[in-house]
Amino acid sequence: MHDLTDLYQSVILDHNRRPRNRGKLPTANRVAHGDNPTCGDQCSVFIRLDGERIADISFDGAGCAISQASASLMTTQLKGKTAAEAQQLYDQFHHIVTTGQPPEEINDLAAFAGVHTFPARIKCATLGWHAALNALKGDEAPATTETHKD
Ligand code: ZN
Q1: Strand (E) or helix (H) holding 96
Q2: Residues around ligand 1, an ion, CB closer than 5 A
Q3: Domains (ranges, CATH) in the chain?
């Protein structure tokens, strides 16, 4: 089990060091922001939805290692998925971080199983997911990103 724990920690460290799909997505037609004031985490998620499918996804934000690594990993898991599949993956991830039990099929999401021993950090781990699901529920107006130009 120790090796497994090390492996999981390495997944989180790797996503921290080299965040995937980070930065604004110019072609996004969905965007949502997540805010976790208890820890000071911020996360924006940009999605280009093509019909029912997530054709492209990115995140941008700042905060603790858990929140940023989780958002990075999330983008790699959701790309190419449908909104319904995204919801299923979130349900799986939420189960992992609240119970510490890995999914039947071991995947990188299990890297966050240790979060369940730190209940305050669950919000950090799920922040990006909440933003993504909100974005998927939002309007399909292509101009959405226009209101978030810096
Ligand atoms: Zn945090």
Answers
A1: helix 83-99
A2: 39, 41, 64, 67, 124
A3: 2-137 (3.90.1010.10)
